[in-house]
Design brief:
By secondary structure, this protein is mainly α. The chain is built from 13 helices and no strands.
């Protein structure tokens, strides 16, 4: 079919809007990268816009020489790995069971999950609960309380409901398979899309977990990466400019640290986000498929 003039104008306008939207999304990421490699004074003075100005690795050197950084990376990797596995172990069977219309009390179970998602006791009762469970200053506090998210449960249940697995399940039952065998041998192998999506969602939540560690973890050997990066940033921002007791060299050094603290912000973003940015392309195709099946069809 031959495109009309109005169709071409519409396509051009849509293309321009999409390009602008993409640039608005990508430029902050691009600016973060070039600012992290630029001279701190150029960043502070606003001289970094489209390319690196005064290439330097000072901000990365300041971060890498901080030995606690590697402890934070190790801890966050462990919390993310075991936390995500724990989330999937609880989430997938629960969502699969709730997707069955013949499950007795399914409505009551959904209400049971809905109520805590809207109403909470507050920080003080939550802290008292964690303390009574003996999880204060315990690495498990960053894993167990994040066991199941109601939103993820609904998305996963919708995926199982909208997927045509019941025919295969009925055939397996005729052959003598029980529900456990059906779930592990048929349902899970066919649910790679939603597993990848939920793994990514939960991994990002665990990787970026900050507030729980700030409240419940006191021992630095259990600190996740986010708290370590916060310490580095605060350490470099604590600069004094009392010229009455400082020499010229001390003033220059403090001024350099103050400038460096600005580029540290961008370097810390890169260091904290890089593992997830590397992992995302490997699950991207499953991510799109799982989200579409779990939301549009539902």
């Amino acid at each position: 079919m031959k495109e009309s003039t109005s169709d071409r104008v519409f396509i051009i306008i849509c293309t321009i809007i999409i390009v602008i939207a993409v640039l608005l999304v990508l430029y902050p990421i691009y600016f973060t990268i070039i600012a992290s490699f630029s001279d701190p004074s150029a960043v502070v003075n606003g001289n970094v816009l489209v390319w690196v100005n005064g290439f330097t690795l000072d901000s990365y050197r300041s971060i890498i020489k901080y030995q606690q950084l590697w402890v934070g990376y190790r801890n966050t990797f462990l919390y993310t790995t075991f936390g995500t596995l724990g989330n999937l172990v609880v989430l997938l069977p629960c969502a699969y069971a709730l997707s069955k219309r013949y499950l007795r009390g399914r409505g009551l179970l959904m209400v049971y999950f809905i109520i805590p998602s809207y109403f909470g006791g507050g920080m003080i009762p939550f802290y008292m609960l964690i303390r009574n469970l003996g999880l204060v200053n315990n690495p498990l506090v960053l894993i167990l309380p994040m066991g199941v998210s109601f939103f993820y449960l609904v998305v996963t249940r919708t995926f199982f409901t909208s997927s045509d697995y019941e025919t295969l399940a009925e055939a397996a039952r005729i052959d003598g398979a029980n529900e456990f065998r059906i779930f592990f041998s048929i349902i899970l192998p066919l649910s790679g899309a939603i597993i990848a999506v939920m793994a990514l969602y939960n991994a990002v939540a665990h990787w970026n977990s900050f507030f729980s560690a700030l409240i419940f973890i006191n021992d630095s050997k259990f600190y996740p990466l986010q708290l370590i990066l916060r310490q580095i940033l605060l350490l470099n921002q604590s600069v004094s400019f009392d010229t009455r007791i400082m020499t010229t060299e001390m003033i220059k050094d403090n001024l350099r640290r103050a400038y460096l603290a600005e580029t540290l912000k961008y370097s810390l973003i890169i260091i904290a986000s890089l593992p997830l940015l590397i992992a995302y392309p490997f699950v991207q195709k499953y991510f799109v498929k799982g989200v579409m099946i779990g939301s549009v069809k539902g």
